[in-house]
Amino acid sequence: MKVSVIVPVYNVQDYLERCLDSLVHQTLEEIEILVVDDGSTDGSPEIIRRYQERYPQIRMFSKKNGGLSDARNYALPYATGEYVGYVDSDDYVEHDMFEKLYREAKKQNYDVVECNLCHEYEDGGDVEIGARIYDKKEMIMNGRSVVWNKIYRRSWLLGTGVVFPKGLIYEDVEFYVRLVPHMGKISYIDDACIHYVQRKTSLNYGTTLKTMDILKILADIRDSYREEGLYETYREALEFLHIRILLCSSFRRMVRIPDKRDRKLALEAAWHTLEDNFPNWKQNTYLRKLRTKKGWYMRAMNRNLYRMCGTCLPYLYKIR
Predict the structure, then answer these.
(1) 210, 214, 194: which is closest to 202 by C-alpha?
(2) Does position 202 have pLDDT exceeding 60, yes or no?
(3) What SS3 string covers the chain?
(4) How many Å separate Cα 4 from the centre of its chain?
(5) Closest by CA position to 219, among listed 264, 263, 278
(6) Can you give the residue ranges of every domain in the chain?
(7) Which of 166, 217, 247, 305 has the fewest Cβ atoms nearer than 10 Å?
């Protein structure tokens, strides 16, 4: 088997057929599709069974609900492909995605091959073209952590011992950053092969205290790097990762939390995570060299400005 594709499914009956159609008609031969019903309560299991009866490349697994990460981890031991890919059940892929990724992977037996992607919104879409990053420290700081635009050499992936963190959102961040030091060879293709569907009911769309999961994700990353004796080698890259996430992407989510007390709790915890773990973060080499608007913004941030933004921005977003 050349490629195993793992598809976790939980209550996505309105999207599942499009996803499975894009997978069963892949141009790559010798592909298996491991579809994990993670305790769905809608019509998703019946859809999977119907496809399994029609398409021999589909293998169906059923388990109690444990979340996206748990479903991905559950399926991996059953995979037999030389390479493994992950597709979320509300997304869909180009019919030649895995042929292109596999063909590139076999050129030099790459550990990881990545493609570009399309964002699909209700009123349109756009193509995201990522940078080709080969330096591991740069990957930690700015690499695309999403799991579903890549394939991974299965024997290598199993050898790393890295799995998805159960019960947390932002699971791809931990999975990717923990894999980076172990990457021997990575390659890229230019094609945008996967359609990332932006739907309002997705886990990452809401702004609740679940946004604080990122703090546990970052703690897990720090702990794993220390346990593997890698922390000092990558300390500044990890520091920059914390700065970028806690002052930019997570900050934007946290200021949108509707409940004022929850919002304050999340923002305070995020600030202390940065200050407590990296008290001299303003001296970060990569931050000081970053000559972009985002770089100027992050360098300008301090405790008082952070609090002021956390107080004022909810009004800008019409959140009280």
Answers:
(1) 210
(2) no
(3) CCEEEEEEECCCHHHHHHHHHHHHCCCCCCEEEEEEECCCCCCHHHHHHHHHHHCCCEEEEECCCCCHHHHHHHHHHHCCCCEEEECCCCCEECCCHHHHHHHHHHHHCCCEEEEEEEEEECCEEEEECCCCCCCHHHHHHHCCCCCCCEEEEHHHHHHHCCCCCCCCCCHHHHHHHHHHHHCCCEEEEEEEEEEEECCCCCCCCCCCHHHHHHHHHHHHHHHHHHHCCCHHHHHHHHHHHHHHHHHHHHHHHHCCCCCHHHHHHHHHHHHHHHHHHCCCHHHCHHHHHCCCHHHHHHHHCCHHHHHHHHHHHHHHCCCC
(4) 19
(5) 278
(6) 3-197, 209-316
(7) 305
pLDDT at res. 205: 45
Q: What angle do CA 197, 209, 265 make, to 5 degrees?
A: 140
Instruction: Note the pLDDT tens digit of each residue in 108-132.
Output: 999 999 999 999 998 889 999 999 9
Q: How far is it, in rounded angstroms, from Cα 159 to Cα 74?
A: 16
pLDDT at 152 over 80: yes
Whole-angstrom distance, CA of residue 94 vs CA of residue 133: 24
Give, in degrees to the nearest 5, the angle at Cα 302 between 298 and 304.
135
Note every long-range contact of 300-305, with CB atoms under 8 Å and residues 24 or more positions apart, other chains counting.
Answer: 301/247, 303/271, 303/275
Q: How far apart are the first and last CA of the chain?
A: 54
Q: Phi and psi of 93, rounded to 5°?
A: -125, 160
What kind of fold does domain 3-197 have according to CATH?
Spore Coat Polysaccharide Biosynthesis Protein SpsA; Chain A (3.90.550)
**Contact in structure between 253 and 288 (CB atoms under 8 Å):** no
